[in-house]
Each structure stands twice: as structure tokens, then as C-alpha cells.
Design goal:
Chain B: InterPro entries: DUF4136. Chain B: Residues 34-213 form the DUF4136 domain. The structure holds 2 protein chains of 2 kinds. In chain A, 10% of the residues lie in helices and 69% in strands. Chain A contains 2 helices and 8 strands; from the N terminus they run αβαβββββββ. Chain B is α/β, with parallel strands linked by helices. Chain B has a single domain, classed as Double Stranded RNA Binding Domain (2-Layer Sandwich), CATH 3.30.160. Helices cover 23% and strands 23% of the residues of chain B. Chain B has helices spanning 3-13, 78-94, 127-130, 193-209, and strands at residues 33-38, 49-51, 57-58, 74-75, 98-99, 108-119, 155-166, 179-188. In chain B, strands 1, 2, 3, 4, 5, 6, 7 and 8 form an 8-stranded mixed sheet that branches. The longest helix of chain B has 17 residues, at 78-94. Chain B starts with a helix and ends in a 7-residue tail after the last helix. The chains are: A mainly beta, B alpha/beta. The A-B interface holds A 2-3, 5-6, 25, 27, 46-48, 68, 70, 72, 77, 79, 84-90, 92, 94, 133-137, 158-159, 161-162, 190-191, 193 and B 1, 6, 9-10, 13-14, 16-17, 19-22, 24-25, 30-40, 139, 141, 155, 157, 186-188, 206, 210-211. β4 (85-106) of chain A pairs antiparallel with β1 of chain B.
Amino acid sequence: MKHILLSAFILLCGVTLYSQSSFILSYPMGLPLGDLHDYSSKTSFRGISMEFLGHAKPGVAVGLETGWNVFYEKKNKEPYKQGTTTITGTQYRYTNAVPILVESKWYPTEEKKKANPYVGLGVGTLFASRSTDFGLYRITNEAWQFCVRPEVGVLFSIEPGLKAMLGAKYYGAFNTDDLDGQSFLSINVGFVFSSL
Amino acid sequence: MTTSLRYLLFACLLPLLWGCYPKGAEYTDELDLVYTNYASDFNFTALKTYSIPDSVVKITGDVISDPDGDGKPSFLPSSSAKVILDQVKLNMSNYGWTLVDKRGNPDVTILVSSMTTTNIYYYYDWWYYGWYYPGYNPGWGWYYPGYYPPYITGYRSGSILMQMIDNTSKPWGSDNAPVKWVCILNGLAEGGTANIAARTQVNIDQAYTQSPYLKH
């Protein structure tokens, strides 16, 4: 996991050296949906999101996104039944979700105003790793899921080459054999660093 | 904003990445498990009496061990055994069962045994040697190309096994004694005698709570 993130981070930082590009670093708050919500319903305040964008033409950017969202919930001691079997214990439920997406953003007002809205769409994979600690045992389930990620947001100009951003992203992940789609909504706040 | 200030802002946001890992268990009782299972076609409430040996067998490994050659296995110290057996008797009594001697033709017998395992720690963090490789610290790790050394953790874990044997179906066939109810308490065998005893009592209570079919 660390190696994937580090490689992606180095790649993203490296490409920002080119002109007409920007790097978005944001803090995501994740609201679990669907199967992920059934497993752990708590909002995630642990995560990071990174995007590199190159400007294809005025008002349109294309690029890559990666990040890390950690969903966690402690389930207090309770019995779990299946057939005639009952097991009682405390469960610690962790889901690590790492999106790796290609994306495009559209800025209808370009950068003419102080606050400029944007919409975007990303497509790629979501690496989901679910671990349940139950007693002294850990049950882990991992999957690479197809993911579609629409987003909306607003950019606030601070000074040339630096903007603040506020946005919402929906990570719609598709079922795999090992794990149902781990979809979530994230609210992101962060900064956009652009080359001048 | 100067470039250096911008880098500072950037650097301040990065630690978010390292704050990602949430907490796990903090107390030993949070690692305790109580497992029960039973024969669903067996009518427990039609039976009334039970017997229980006054010792708890200590299972020491896969090979049957008889270190002193007296034809009997090793046993838990009587003080530890008493904590377990008294709690089982209390719960059986609360559920309407009557304790009888093994010569008193008991309907069922409860056999209690225990085992502990010491697990050895093989994993250790890169941090221990990060100082030797300037520029490769922190955040690096080990990897073993194409093979895996043992990856186990360092703790002593223990289990208590309870089996309820049906005596009413004697003579038993196929050289097998029918176990109609089984319970395994599993957890860390760490934290001092008083702590282990208290957790054992709580977990035995839980075993009965989650087995209401034993109640008269």
C-alpha cells in the first residue's frame, strides 16, 4: 500500500514540472454508501486525495487521481450467529479505499471570476481492502473494482497559481466476486497549485 | 505568497497521509471470543442432571503427554480450575440443571480442558534499521522476493474448551462419545491471574447467555 501511494505521489509531483499543469492536494471526508455503509457506517475523517491535471484546452483539463480513504468502525462486543454457531466478541472493521483514475474536469467560467465552478468525471479502479479484526484473528478481503467518479465543486482564486477548492465526489464502485462495490461520497477541501 | 510559503503550505498538508491508520484493541478483554455450537436435533431440556470432573485438563500439544507416567494428563492448578468449574456450576444451576456424582447416572457430563500457545514474533519494522540507511527513512519496509518467512505475532493465547457429553445414548457406537454442545473461549492469556480469572468468568457467563436452548 505504502509503495503504491509513494510511487503515485512521485509520479504526480514529477509531472507537475511541465507547463500548464496543476496539482490538487485535498482532504477528503468520506461518507460510506451501500455495502460499505452496511459494514461500517461511520464517516471517514482519515484520508488524502491527490490529482495531477494538464490543461488540454481553455476550460478543460485532463489528468490522473489517486488517494487514500480509511473507513473504520469499532463494533462493541455482541454475538454473531450463523446456523447453530454463535461467536461473541469485539470487532474492529477497517476499509482502505485507494482510487486510481483518469479524469477530466470542465470549468464553464474558466478563471474569469473569484469563484469558479467545475464538474468532472473520472474512470478507473478502486482498490478496496477490507479487514475485520475479531478476537486474535484478522479476516482480510481485497478487490480491484471498476470505478466511475463524477464530481462537482468550486475553485476560489487566492493568487496567481494558487486556488482553494471545495468539492464533492461520488465514487461508484462495481461489484467483484470477492467484494461488493465499495461506493462512497467524499467532500473534499484543499488547494490547487498551478504552474504559472 | 512566496514560493517558499507555498511549499510550506504543501508540506503542512502532507502529514494527513500518515495520520490515516486508526486504532485497534486497547484492552485484553476486547480480544476475547466466545464460540458455542450445538446439535440442533437434541432436546437439552428433557434432561436434568449433569456431572463434571473436579479438574481441568491441560492440553499441551498434539501428542498425548503423560510426563509423570501415572496414566493421567496434566491438570491446571486447582485454584485456576476452581474459578472455571465454579462458574460453570453456577450457570448450570441457574439454567435448572442438577449436579450429581458421576456414579449417580448423570444425563450429561461437562468436560473442561485448557490450552495455551506462545506465539513468536518474527515481524519487526524497518524503523529498527532505518538509521543505517540515510535517505531511506521513514516509510520504507522489508520485502522478501519470491518467498515468505514466518510472519507471526508475539503473544501467549489461550483457549478453554467445554464439551457436553450425552450419557443417555449409551452404549455409544463407533467408538465415539457424542458431544451435544461445545464452547470455546479464546483470548490473550496475558494480564495477570486475577484479570484472566475475571475475564474467564465473564466469558463463561456469555457462553450460557448465548446458549438459551440449555435452559429449563
